[in-house]
Amino acid sequence: MPSLLDAASFLVFKVPLILKTALFHVLRLSPTSAKWDLRTALTVTIIRDVLCNSPPSTISMQQRSTIQDPGVKGRMWVSRVTIPAPPEDAIRHALFGAIRTLGTGEEEYSSPTVAPVTAEWTGYRARVSPNAPEPPISEADKYKHLMEETTSDVTLLYFHGGAYYLMDPCSNRNAVASYAKLTGGRVLSIRYRLAPLNPFPSALLDALLVYLSLIYPPDGALHSPVHPSNIVFGGDSAGGNLATVLLQTILQLHRGTTPEGNLPVVIFHGKPVKVPLPAGIALCSPSLDLTRSMQWSKKHAQYDYLPPPSMNPTKSPPCDIWPANPPRADLFCEGSALCHPLVSPVAAPSWAGSPPIFVCCGEELLAEECKVFAQNAARQGVAIVWEQYEAMPHCFAHVLQGTFTSARSLESYADFVTGVVQKNPGEITTKGQFYAAKSLEASSVDVCNLHDSTEEEVLEELERARDDIVRDFELAK
């Protein structure tokens, strides 16, 4: 009941804004009225107002408000599990080796231990009402029912968004359940460690642990071994970043193997195991440049709800978890690490050898970094499936579920995931589409020429933005 009252109070407070937005949209006085339907206009305006105009709140308050579990209901199976940490440190050493090799040697970063990770298996639950309660049975029984209703071999390893310090698998259940339904498969959504208490590379270490646990289940796991050719990494926003840097980590481990063709090996739960590549990765509005050096487009800002780079969460009022101890320039990592390829993957020099990659975004603040990433990978021979939707905001497929545009995007995402699992990877080829607003008329685009900047120019901008962030932090001390 308190949550219903809070929601009612919130809507009452926003009535003037809602009425103004609706009126301007209906009368076509808004610059976006020709591109959006009324629901999109209201949704983006309200989210933008909350993110940009709310009174300042602490990081701990922001975090708590976004990880509250609303419960499970309707057409989804959710089985909660804990992935145990192995007794040895081999995957940690492998990760830190990749970090050192990909870096310049000047980056500072934390040294997290390997820890258990909680997660949620999600699958489609048929033949129940949209408001059907979660059945009062064990997590093992829920997983059994989930598996009985899967119709494909797809396993989507999913990472939620939230700027690495917000949100939770429970925040994305509806979208994740849609992916499970559309692919006929199952989704494992992980509760990776959040910043600022757990900065880089904690989340990446969690992701690597869970991936290997899918392939090599520890004792007591509910799932049987999953072949890597049936696994796709997925994520939105910061979760898209995590999926991408996990892929880059594995690619780096492969670069260090000899002779050519051998897979890297680590000790995992007492056994030597190989670290293979997944079937592909699928990204929704991925955050790929944590310096935010490319997020200044006024055109994109009018369609998005994300705050501009000038509104930095590091400026939030102090609390028990921020500023960090010792203080640092960024919530997620040390300022010196902002351009590291496992923090900002647009800085990665090579994607050669990668499985196919799906990238979807709107005309949003993150669009330019998405273009740079897709273009670089495509030029290096990676199969890239690129989709951009005119006038759409960040993560529109999730925040606008129920609209035709969201449905098209979710279907494309699921088609890619199903395709890389069911087809030979060589059958997936690079292609790009731009979808017009409202009509969704598609036009082809050249993925190898999405952005005007060279790789060198992009890296220079990243480094300049990083240096500005570090300088401002030092001056504020």
UniProtKB/TrEMBL annotation:
One Pfam family from the record: Abhydrolase_3
Domain Alpha/beta hydrolase fold-3, chain residue ranges per copy: 156-397
InterPro entries: AB_hydrolase_3, AB_hydrolase_fold, GDXG_lipolytic_enzyme
Keyword Hydrolase: yes
UniProt keyword Signal present: no
Transmembrane stretches, start-end: none
Record keywords: Hydrolase
GO molecular-function terms, A-Z: hydrolase activity
PANTHER family: AB HYDROLASE SUPERFAMILY PROTEIN C4A8.06C (PTHR48081), PUTATIVE (AFU_ORTHOLOGUE AFUA_3G11560)-RELATED (PTHR48081:SF25)
The protein's name in its UniProt record: Alpha/beta hydrolase fold-3 domain-containing protein
